[in-house]
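input
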Amino acid sequence: MTIEEKITYYKESLDSFGDTMDKYKFLLDQGKKAKPFPEEYRQDGFKVSGCQAQVWLVPFLHNELLSFHTDSDAFISKGMITILSDIYGDNLPNDILNSDFELIKTLNLDVLLTPSRTNGVFFMLKAIKKYAETFSKT
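output
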């Protein structure tokens, strides 16, 4: 799936729930589906600054595709970083950079999350973009 298709998938998934609590449960469930986080990466250098919770985002390349190990000490944040990793991970760094980062707003997270958590999502996206710039071959 492309980045845009994955954003559409998550938008449709969230929109399928009429109740806000069901949307929260969906976010929590995404965090529960996350792959185990390698403990050797639980370092300050991999923390996403600007997040209310502790969020770790560790980039790695596999067959030229940029992917991420992710974790958080807060359930909602873990769900969000897991979703963002799924959307943007397993892509060429230039494809990530060329994607429309504004599309994430279609998920309407600002309605669902508190302002500080919404701000945290912004910082998570900023970190993903920074790693894509680091690994891009321009």
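quick obs: The CA atoms of residues 33 and 82 lie 8 Å apart.
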